[in-house]
From TrEMBL:
Pathway: Amino-acid biosynthesis; L-proline biosynthesis; L-proline from L-glutamate 5-semialdehyde: step 1/1
Name by which UniProt lists this protein: Pyrroline-5-carboxylate reductase
Catalytic activity entry: L-proline + NADP(+) = (S)-1-pyrroline-5-carboxylate + NADPH + 2 H(+); L-proline + NAD(+) = (S)-1-pyrroline-5-carboxylate + NADH + 2 H(+)
InterPro entries found in the cross-reference section: 6-PGluconate_DH-like_C_sf (IPR008927), NAD(P)-bd_dom_sf (IPR036291), P5C_Rdtase_cat_N (IPR028939), P5CR-like_CS (IPR053790), P5CR_dimer (IPR029036), Pyrroline-COOH_reductase (IPR000304)
GO CC terms of this entry: cytoplasm
Lineage: Bacteria, Pseudomonadati, Planctomycetota, Planctomycetia, Pirellulales
Keywords, sorted A to Z: Amino-acid biosynthesis, Cytoplasm, NADP, Oxidoreductase, Proline biosynthesis
Stated family: Belongs to the pyrroline-5-carboxylate reductase family.
Length: 273
């Protein structure tokens, strides 16, 4: 572990909300050594969620909101977008001096800064593969977020995947693509496996092949530097099986469906603002 990482592990992070995304992001950060479980102070209302954290991330602390915000250096808001004003108003006097990191979809920096009473805020759109170190995140900083704050958030996100600093106007599009995107790919994997079963494969083998095919294709795009269209052409032999399948996909509007899905999620993100 580098000296810089060691320093980072000394920050106290309050995590407000302990649901799916907090489990993935904070779980990934703990696994990567960006933060130690004992420096995580969790704020969640339900006993069942507290128990989940104790069982899966032993060592995390629990506190009520005001106490957690006061003790923390960095406060990550991982509640639903409409709960953001509730918690930020509730801890009203304690935001001063804290780096606030929000992962809520649709909630703009202007609103977050307004609620915090300062501009030392970073808005992040992560995704759940952060849990396994393969996240795709984007972030943008408020007007009082320092270079050090941005670097700290970027390196926390980079420890669990890739991270890009963007202009806030791009945040809805990022939400539509990589924020919501894992769900599109999960139904694709499920559907591929269903296809395999329909064609006669046992379910577990079909699922294994479908999953590895998606991972392998993604890695090919990432590592070959080739355009996906070129890689697609290399699979489709003239008069062969793949081109027959591709024709069916085009007839069923798969490309249009994917584009529409990303746009629908981005539009919903804009609406949440
Ligand atoms: N899920 C995803 O893939 C992604 C989600 N996000 C964003 O992350 C945020 C959280 O989403 P997600 O994790 O999916 O949602 P979940 O519903 O899984 O988690 C929400 C959490 O908020 C907690 N909570 C509710 N009210 C309060 C409160 N007043 N004080 C403290 N905690 C509270 C809940 O507690 P309890 O468990 O006790 O009920 C729960 O742990 C959202 O803003 C979403 O837009 C961003 C990117 C991807
Ligand atoms: O569905 C949602 O609203 C959240 C934001 C991006 C992914 N999940």
């Amino acid at each position: 572990m580098t000296e810089q990482t060691l320093e980072k592990t000394q920050f106290k992070w309050a995590i407000v909300g302990g649901g799916q995304m907090a489990r993935a992001l904070v779980g990934g950060m703990i696994k990567a050594g960006v933060v130690s479980a004992s420096n995580v102070i969790l704020v969640v209302p339900s006993e069942s969620t507290r128990r989940w954290w104790d069982e899966n991330q032993p060592g995390v602390q629990h506190a009520d909101l005001e106490e957690a915000v006061q003790q923390a250096d960095i406060v990550m808001l991982a509640v639903k977008p409409w709960v953001i004003p509730v918690v930020m108003n509730q801890a009203g006097p304690f935001w001063s001096g804290k780096l606030v990191v929000s992962i809520a979809a649709g909630v703009p920096l202007s609103k977050l800064c307004d609620l915090a009473g300062h501009g030392r805020v970073v808005r992040v759109m992560p995704n759940t593969p952060c849990l396994v170190g393969s996240g795709a995140s984007a972030f943008c900083g408020g007007d009082e977020a320092t270079d050090e704050d941005r670097t700290l958030v970027a390196s926390a996100l980079e420890a669990v995947g890739i991270a890009a600093e963007i202009d806030e106007v791009q945040m809805d599009a990022v939400t539509g693509l990589s924020g919501s995107g894992p769900a599109y790919i999960y139904i694709l994997i499920e559907a591929l496996a269903d296809g395999g079963v329909a064609a006669g494969l046992p379910r577990d083998l079909a699922m294994k092949l479908a999953t590895q095919t998606v991972i392998g294709a993604g890695e090919m795009v990432q590592k070959s530097g080739m355009h996906p269209g070129q890689l697609k052409d290399a699979v489709a032999s003239p008069g062969g099986t793949t081109i027959a399948a591709l024709q069916t996909l085009e007839q069923n509007g798969v490309r249009a469906a994917m584009i529409a899905a990303v746009k629908a999620s981005a539009a919903r993100s804009k609406e949440l603002a």
